[in-house]
Design a protein that fits this description.
Blueprint lengths: L2 E7 L6 H11 L4 E7 L5 H8 L3 E4 L4 H16 L3 E4 L11 H8 L5 E5 L10 H17 L11 E3 L1 H9 L7 H9 L4 E5 L14 H16 L17
Length: 236
C-alpha cells in the first residue's frame, strides 16, 4: 500500500524543517512531497538546501491548487493513498497509522479529528466549526465532528476524483458534496499541536468570512452541483 503525504506549504520556512525531518527520521515508511505554494519567504530554499522532495510552484495558488498539485503527482506515480498534512507543525504523524487502519475498513476518506473522544471547546472559532458541522448534517444526514480538520486521508478513488476535479478543494464543502455522491467518510481521534512558528493566513476577520462562505456553499451552492456517484472498482 503506497501512501504519499502531501504537505502544502506557504511561508513555512520556520516550521517545514521540523515537520519534514520528523517524517524522515521517524516515519520513513511513508513517502512525502512538499508543495511550496509560491512562498514569499525562504521555504523553497530550506527545502532545496535540506534535499527535501518538493514541488516549487512559481506563484501562490492557494491551498486548493497546492493540494491538487500534490494529488496529481500522487496519481501519476501510482500512489494508493494520499494524506493531507499541514506544514506548520500542528499535525502529528503518530496518528497516520490510525487513519490507515480505519481506511482499511472500507472508507474513502478518513479525517484526523480532534473531537471523536474529546469535547469541542466553547470558543468563537469552535462555534464556526459547529455551524459547519450542522450544515453538513442537515444536508447529508451524516455527522462530521471536526469538519475543519486539515488532516485527511484519501484512498485511490478519491485521488482520481481530486486529480481531475477542478472544483474539488480540500475543504468542508467538498466533504459535504462527496458525501452526497456516496463517499464513505469516517473520523479517528487525532490530537494536534499549536502552531509554534509563523502566522495562520486566517485572521479573526478572515475566519468569519471563511465560515460564512463554507456554510453558504454547503447549504446552497453544493445543491446545484451535478452529483457524480462514486465509482469503485469493486462496483463496476
Amino acid at each position: 500500500m503506497k501512501i504519499l503525504i502531501v504537505i502544502p506549504a506557504y511561508n513555512e520556512e520556520k516550521s517545514i524543517e521540523r515537520v519534514v525531518d520528523n517524517l524522515i527520521e521517524n516515519y520513513s515508511q511513508y513517502d512525502y512531497i512538499v508543495v511550496n505554494d509560491g512562498s514569499k519567504d525562504d521555504t523553497a530554499r530550506v527545502c532545496r538546501d535540506r534535499g527535501y522532495r518538493f514541488i516549487d510552484l512559481p506563484i501562490n495558488l492557494g491551498l486548493t491548487g497546492a493540494f491538487q498539485t500534490g494529488v496529481k503527482y500522487a496519481a501519476a506515480k501510482g500512489y494508493d493513498r494520499v494524506l493531507q498534512f499541514d506544514g506548520d507543525g500542528q499535525h502529528r504523524a503518530e496518528y497516520i497509522q490510525d487513519l490507515m487502519d480505519e481506511m482499511d475498513k472500507g472508507y474513502d476518506i478518513v479525517i484526523g479529528s480532534r473531537f471523536v473522544n474529546e469535547k469541542k471547546p466553547k470558543t468563537l472559532r469552535m462555534a464556526g466549526s459547529r455551524l459547519i458541522a450542522a450544515a453538513i448534517r442537515i444536508t447529508t444526514g451524516q455527522k462530521i465532528k471536526d469538519p475543519t480538520s486539515g488532516m485527511r486521508l484519501f484512498n485511490r478513488v478519491m485521488i482520481e476524483q481530486f486529480a481531475v476535479g477542478l472544483n474539488h478543494s480540500p475543504e468542508p464543502d467538498t466533504i459535504s458534496y462527496l458525501l452526497k455522491c456516496g463517499a464513505r467518510i469516517s473520523e479517528v481521534q487525532a490530537n494536534m499541536d499549536e502552531r509554534q512558528e509563523g502566522q495562520s493566513y486566517l485572521s479573526f476577520a478572515k475566519s468569519i468570512g471563511y465560515m460564512a462562505r463554507v456554510v453558504t456553499s454547503i447549504i446552497l451552492i453544493q445543491n446545484f452541483r451535478k452529483k457524480e456517484p462514486i465509482a469503485r472498482k469493486d462496483e463496476r
